[in-house]
Design a protein that fits this description.
The chain is an alpha/beta fold and 360 residues long. It contains eleven helices and 14 strands. Helices cover 27% and strands 21% of the residues.
């Protein structure tokens, strides 16, 4: 049942209460306060709840949702933080939130994520989805230079509270609703830290984030990131970053990334030493080979000659396919989606398929 479809003459918090066996309730364009949310939790057999919240920051109301298994709140960072601090949800296993904040200062967002991980339900969460929604998108960084250096932070620091969540299997992080927020970035050195921290993860999505090849300190400030977005094409990680997930995430079965650069020299597509060592379980035992099956990339980077009319020009599809096949021999090409430069990606997929057929 969706709240946006309820008769406008009926108070929205009362409308679903007449449905004795209602399992899922979604309310759009209406903000629930703590008393509203508690009333829903007490009155319904709801298992899934999606709604906007407000008024939690200055409320001391304890929220008890004894039957909720999936909770999807959207609201200001202060309200989401207050909600998870006061929430008692003994069977909650799936938490999906849109965290809205007004200024390009990411510290409250990190605090909110930390509160989620430390909450009464954090140790039971199997699935967590976090979307960052920066509301004041017209702010000019030049007018707020006082804390510019401190306003840029690495993705691994943002996600660090998730590293200690013991049963978390599915993590989705979106750096913005529409356009990447310039205060959260990913670098070449940062992606390995993300992989090492999420060693138990099975499904991982990292979307709408900014990738930079430069080292993080001290050159990178928010103002610098803003200029990079304006003056140059958006960077993308090289395909070789995938080896970190092969090494450090042995349970990973699905990986979704914004973009990827496969136009790299063949010489750089060498396996890390750990995967060349016969003592490594991936090499020694076929059954221990990496289980990744789904690799979804939103788009290939427009790097070098990849953005030419002949999309395959400049990309060594054979070398890229060999690299991916060795890292992830169980890839299912039916689940490897691509939404731009399809010809280039399809050339790689065809080569992977040929290698898989040769092993049968």
């Amino acid at each position: 049942m969706k709240g946006s479809c309820i008769n406008a003459n009926v108070p929205i918090v009362q409308a679903p209460l007449g449905f004795q066996y209602l399992h899922s309730f979604e309310a759009n364009y209406f903000e629930f306060n703590p008393l509203d949310l508690q009333r829903l939790g007490n009155s319904l057999t709801l298992g899934e709840l999606q709604l906007d919240i407000a008024g939690f920051e200055f409320s001391n109301t304890k929220i008890d949702l004894p039957r909720i298994q999936t909770l999807c709140p959207s609201g200001q960072v202060e309200d989401i933080t207050a909600l998870v601090t006061r929430l008692q949800a003994p069977v909650l296993v799936d938490f999906r939130t849109i965290i809205k904040f007004q200024r390009l200062q990411v510290a409250p967002v990190i605090q909110c994520i930390r509160r989620i991980s430390e909450s009464s339900f954090g140790a039971r969460l199997c699935s967590l989805e976090i979307t960052i929604d920066f509301l004041n998108k017209t702010e000019n960084p030049a007018t707020n230079q006082a804390s510019a250096d401190n306003d840029v932070i690495l993705l691994s620091s943002v996600l660090q509270p998730c590293f200690s969540m013991p049963v978390l299997e599915d993590l989705q992080f979106f750096g913005s609703v529409f356009h990447p927020c310039p205060c959260i970035i990913v670098t070449d050195d940062d992606m390995p830290a993300v992989a090492r921290g999420l060693k138990h993860i099975r499904r991982l999505t990292i979307g709408r984030t900014i990738y930079l090849h430069e080292p993080f300190p001290p050159q990178i400030t928010r103002d610098y990131v803003e200029r990079q977005l304006v003056e140059s094409a958006r960077c993308a990680p090289d395909v070789t970053i995938l080896q970190h997930f092969a090494l450090h995430c042995p349970r990973l079965v699905a990986l979704n990334l914004d973009n990827l650069n496969i136009n790299v020299p063949r010489a750089s597509l060498s396996l890390p030493q750990q995967l060349n060592d016969n003592r490594h379980p991936f090499v020694r035992t076929p059954s221990a080979q990496h289980p990744l099956r789904a690799l979804d990339i939103w788009r290939l980077a427009q790097d070098g000659r990849v953005d030419s009319d002949d999309e395959e020009d400049g990309v060594d599809a054979v070398a890229v396919a060999e690299y991916l096949d060795v890292l992830f021999p169980h890839l299912d090409i039916r689940h490897m989606q691509m939404f731009s430069f399809e010809n280039t990606w399809h050339a790689v997929l065809n080569q992977i398929a040929a290698r898989q057929r040769s092993r049968r």
